[in-house]
Amino acid sequence: MDYSVKVMDHFSNPRNMGSIENCDGVGEVGNAKCGDIMKIFLKVEDDRIVDVKFQTFGCGAAIASSSMATELIKGKTLKEAWQLSNKAVAEALDGLPPIKMHCSMLAEEAIHEAINDYLKKQGLEPWTE
Length: 129
What we know:
By secondary structure, the chain is α+β, with helices and mostly antiparallel strands. Helices cover 43% and strands 21% of the residues. The chain is built from five helices and three strands; from the N terminus they run αβββαααα. It has helices at 5-12, 60-73, 78-82, 86-92, 101-121; strands at 25-31, 36-45, 48-57. A three-stranded antiparallel β-sheet has the order 1-2-3. The protein is globular and about 45 Å long. It starts with a helix and ends in an 8-residue tail after the last helix.
């Protein structure tokens, strides 16, 4: 399988790996078919993501997608982060093989779960697509 240099870089040197103590929101998604599990932790201040970390159990593309997605939403507002699409994650990685596109989908879903977890903790209505 041919991976871009960026995918290999984010797989070898993942950004924002780990967890956040007392995080404001956490999202966990998994794909039973491929065995990838992704967890995203958010720290939110004034409606902005001031810190984000991830823990991913999965293939190189899943780890690279998590790493890139966290880089793309750090410093963004919740609304901006919500709008991050799996296509944008894949494009930022200079493409993913078609068989690995579901990894970028997981990143998008985990971010949505984490944002909704934060909203619920604030007593707010969760967002939908």
